[in-house]
Please model this.
Amino acid sequence: MGRKPILEDVLYQIDFITQGRGEAVIDFIKINRKEQDLEELKNTNHSTYSSLLGAHATLQSQYRTLNEKYDESSKELRNLKEYYCYVISLSWISFSTEKTCPVCKVGWVPFNSKCYFFSTDKLTWESSRDQCVRKGGQLVIVKSSKEQEFLENKISVMGGEEKDYWIGLHDRFKDGEFVWVDGTPLSTSNRFWDVNQPNGGNNENCVQIWIESQWKHWHDFPCATPSKWVCETTSSLLPI
Ligand SMILES: [Ca+2]
Ligand SMILES: [Ca+2]
Model:
């Protein structure tokens, strides 16, 4: 009675231990594999991290180079602007306090904050007016003695043999009542008639700047006479 249970117990224990050991071995293998996986993952991550570091360094270097190029270009642009504005200032330009200078389309001449176009062809006053509008401006409206002086100087230089140019002034609606193309009446302060002008009555209803011997200011003249013309438009202001 007494021995059988002991033997069975021992066998049971041996069986249990053997079985337990087997499981322990399997667990050990599993853990070992996981460690290997972890090591591989660590190596892969390390390599990715190194590549990222390299890319980061390259980008930083490219950023530095671009910044240097941007600084150089900015300096070059500033110099060009200053040179452009200096050249402009030689031709009757006065600078505003905001440190800007006017920029005009090719063929237009800057003066203060406006641009002027001096034609080489001749048109009637009405066609000149329409042509200025087509070019994005209007026949010139003279608002100050400085502007009048600028126009006289330019016409003297550019006019060649024929220094008579239409401006945007007329009395076509009522003789003697001069108005500008934008509808404003001629002011009493800024009018630059030549001696004995206007003198044309109903026959002369459009106005020219006409530079010839003693004449250099305004004449009334027949509107249908083909003549050169001056347009104006606002300029773009370039900050320096
Ligand atoms: Ca008239
Ligand atoms: Ca006249």
Observations:
- The mean pLDDT is 87.
- The longest helix spans residues 3-89.
- The beta strands are 100-103, 109-111, 114-118, 138-139, 164-170, 179-180, 206-210, 218-221, 228-234, 236-239.
